[in-house]
Design a protein that fits this description.
Length: 191
């Protein structure tokens, strides 16, 4: 008897390590942000680190989507998620001297869009994998963070960076958990 295997589940199972890497990069970004000692000297470095993080995160998402486009009809959700990160990362790195307000808007828009994409992906996965709640929770945290940032664009950059660091660590931990659950919990997939 042949069992129909959900295609988005296959995509996530085959690229579980991408989620793991994304989570680890997010945790590293959060920790590096917390460790910056001087606000004025660290601001430009943190802008560049954020831009690099979002760019790498986006590239990993694009890679996972493109690699799985033949197996999943929902690959475009992951592609949009990744492309958003690439665009925001490039904009941030190309214009590192932008005002804190513009960077804050980039961060808020990125978190909001990627959070919505994660929730959409989780809804599509709810019957296909175990642990989809982790992806939903990560998406909801991203949406809430994005809304907070967009509602408070005048907040100081350092306060914003502390919140961003906490978000990155929490999000990273959730992605690591999801990656490990996906890697371990797909007995119906071919080896």
């Amino acid at each position: 008897m042949t069992v129909a295997v959900p295609s988005l589940s296959i995509m996530l199972h085959r690229t579980w390590w991408v989620l793991l890497l994304r989570g680890l990069v997010a945790i590293a970004f959060g920790v590096l942000t917390w460790l910056q000692p001087a606000a004025s000297a660290a601001a430009l470095v943190l802008v560049l680190v954020f831009g690099a993080y979002v760019f790498v995160d986006g590239l990993l998402g694009v890679y996972a989507a493109i690699r799985s486009r033949q197996q999943s009809r929902h690959w475009w959700v992951i592609l949009l998620w990744g492309l958003t990160g690439v665009v925001v990362g490039v904009l941030t790195v190309v214009k590192p001297a932008i005002t804190a307000l513009v960077l804050t808007m980039y961060i808020g828009a990125w978190a909001l869009i990627t959070g919505v994409m994660q929730v959409v992906a989780a809804i599509r996965l709810r019957k296909e994998i175990e642990g989809e709640w982790v992806l939903v929770l990560g998406g909801v945290i991203s949406v809430l963070f994005g809304c907070f940032v967009l509602a408070q664009p005048g907040a100081g950059m350092m306060a914003m960076l502390w919140v961003l660091a906490a978000y990155a660590v929490a999000f990273g931990v959730l992605m690591v958990i999801l990656a490990l659950k996906i890697r371990k919990g797909a007995p119906w997939l071919p080896a």
